Amino acid sequence: MNKDVATFEAKCAKCGSQFEHPSFGDFTYGEIILYTIDGLQKAWANAFSAFPQRVKSMLDPPRSKKFWEILASVADPIDGQKLVAKIVCPNCASDHMDYWNGKQIGVTPIQEATFSHLCELDDATLAIEIAAVTD
Ligand SMILES: [Zn+2]
Questions:
Q1: How far does the centroid of ligand 1 lie from the alpha carbon of residue 51, in Å?
Q2: Rg of the chain's alpha carbons, rounded to an integer?
Q3: In the chain, how many domains are there?
Q4: Which of 28 and 33 is assigned the larger pLDDT?
């Protein structure tokens, strides 16, 4: 499901390019934008959806700060690119930003992240996949 998300200005600390990034801002608890490692594609995820809740229930502690990191790494790749839970520069793929959440630029439709290759796994197998990410 696509969702319209507001976009804001960000500036890459490495290459200096300014770009537009979608963000839920600081006010939407439980939702995040994931980026492909090349910074070209984005997807949104909701912590309270069925699969993220399963992942969360397997973490120790469940409120682990690594939750989004783990969720991003088990999401289905987009255009063959893995996802990460941080802003990535679409020009140089750096995740070092001068600033982000700058002035609002517009609104863009963002696809929902999918987890199709893991959704079908039973709990024991999924736990092994998650352990592989956290190690
Ligand atoms: Zn850059």
A1: 32
A2: 15
A3: 1
A4: 33
